[in-house]
Design goal:
Layout lengths: L5 E5 L6 H14 L3 E6 L26 E2 L12 H17 L2 E6 L3 H8 L9 H14 L1 H11 L1 H5 L6 H14 L17 E7 L2 H18 L1 H9 L15 H8 L5 H24 L5 E4 L5 H14 L1
Parallel strand pairs: 1-4, 1-5, 2-3, 2-4, 5-6
Helix pairs in contact: 1-12, 2-3, 4-5, 4-7, 5-7, 8-11, 9-10, 10-11
Length: 311
């Protein structure tokens, strides 16, 4: 491993990944090394999507430079392929300057796109336009059902509410005649050596933790945040408007859901998303898991990073 190894802090939502990444960066800097953080939470790419993504304000980032956060407008689209083309040169540049890159987030395909050596299939603009029109017509759940008929494995890895991911998978299957899952090998080949540190905990504790987190987002003003984003194009956005929490807050504003129902639906989908994240990450035998409730998780993670730097 190089003297500036690639570090990734991964795991389900709500487990304290951002705090751990900042702790590691600060400790490295205190020891005389250099470290910076690369965001890998796809919804934190968007300026203005703060409360619903649990985005740390600049004042709480410990003075550590953060990259690929707040770099997209609400109406912009985001894909794992685009993220790969942005993150890899950034990582290489950091390493050339002796900076340890610390990726942090839970967006599974985005993380895999950087850490693993695989190519994204191209796109067919006409087919994509047709599928996106169908998505608008029949909705995300129906497109997910269609994907499940074509490729059950791929469907199991995609949240039914994520219509864009289902559309992309169907597009690839239609273009290549092969399962979408074929692009995501069970035994990945590394782009470069990396240290992956995962945070997880007891399911019953995480379930309650996420419920409290969602309720806090509503108290902090998620609905008001969504109101400000509407003027910036949230309703027309293909990616941002479908984010968990934001879709429910929009429904509440439109009178389609009560506040109680919007919160309950967000809790349910957030908990379901966390289960999918763990299902995804659990397959990767390279991840070294730590208990997020453990009092010594920071020191254990730091020891892993220090060992990686010395090796």
């Amino acid at each position: 491993m190089t003297k500036t190894p690639l570090i990734a802090v991964v795991g389900p939502t709500g487990t304290g990944k951002s705090d751990l990444a900042i702790f590691l960066a600060q400790k490295l800097i205190e020891s005389g090394a250099k470290a910076e953080i690369i965001n890998c939470d796809a919804m934190q790419f968007y300026r203005g999507m703060d409360i619903g993504t649990a985005k740390l304000p600049a004042s709480e980032r410990g003075g550590i430079p953060h990259h690929l956060i707040d770099h997209l407008e609400i109406i912009d689209e985001s894909t794992a392929a685009d993220y790969q083309t942005l993150a890899r040169p950034l990582i290489s540049d950091m390493q050339s300057r002796g900076v340890v890159p610390i990726m942090v987030g839970g967006s599974m395909l985005y993380i895999a796109a950087v850490l693993n050596d695989f190519e994204f299939p191209g796109t067919d603009p006409a087919l994509r336009a047709q599928l996106e029109a169908e998505l608008e017509s029949v909705g995300a759940l129906e497109m997910h059902k269609r994907l499940a008929e074509l490729d059950p494995i791929a469907a199991s890895r995609i949240i039914p509410q994520n219509g864009r991911r289902s559309v992309r998978a169907i597009e690839i299957i239609t273009m290549t005649g092969k399962p979408f899952a074929a692009a995501l090998p069970e035994v990945p080949v590394e782009w470069q050596p990396s240290l992956q540190i995962g945070l997880n905990g007891p399911r019953e504790d995480l379930v309650k933790r996420l419920e409290v987190r969602v309720e806090r987002m509503w108290r902090q003003g998620l609905v008001a945040e969504v109101e400000t984003l509407i003027a910036r194009g949230l309703r027309e956005a293909k990616t941002a408007k479908r984010a968990i929490g934001y879709a429910q807050a929009l429904a509440q504003l439109d009178g389609e859901m009560t506040e109680e129902a919007a919160i309950a639906d967000t809790v349910r989908l957030t908990q379901k998303y966390a289960r999918r994240q763990m299902s995804w990450f659990r397959r990767d035998q390279r991840i070294q898991w730590l208990e997020y409730q453990s009092a010594d998780k920071e020191q254990t993670a730091l020891a892993l990073v220090q060992a990686a730097i010395k090796s």
